[in-house]
Task: inverse folding
């Protein structure tokens, strides 16, 4: 019922910045928790950042804290991930995800999400 499409991935040099966007359709996601996950080759998918419905709280993984920022624009039904000071270890496929409605806390586990985007590749060169 919800479709998510990521964009903004690409190739950047270490220390550079990139902004990922995830546009949603099918439902208005104002009260949905939203998240960004990433998966590097041979590694498990991990939650990078999450934001609660109604923009009440956010979570950022320790590995990206201070460098990445999740935000949402309810009017545009879009969630963003601003990535600064990128490192080679940030290289991965990044996925956005959405929970069901009325989630007012940040969700950090895959189990907490019902909808997923197709992923966008982020490659950081050393």
Result:
């Amino acid at each position: 019922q919800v479709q998510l499409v990521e964009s903004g991935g690409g190739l950047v040099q270490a220390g550079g910045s990139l902004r990922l966007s995830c546009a949603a359709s099918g439902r208005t996601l104002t009260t949905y928790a939203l998240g960004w996950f990433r998966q590097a080759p041979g590694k498990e998918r991990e939650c990078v950042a999450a934001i609660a419905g109604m923009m009440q709280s956010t979570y950022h993984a320790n590995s990206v804290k201070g460098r990445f920022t999740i935000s949402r624009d309810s009017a545009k039904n879009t969630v963003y991930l601003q990535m600064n000071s990128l490192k080679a270890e940030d290289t991965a496929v990044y996925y956005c995800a959405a929970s069901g409605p009325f989630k007012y806390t940040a969700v950090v586990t895959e189990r907490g999400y019902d909808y997923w985007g197709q992923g966008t590749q982020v490659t950081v060169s050393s």
User: Anything to note?
Assistant: The CA atoms of residues 10 and 122 lie 5 Å apart. The chain has no helices and eleven strands. The longest strand covers residues 18-25. The mean pLDDT is 96.
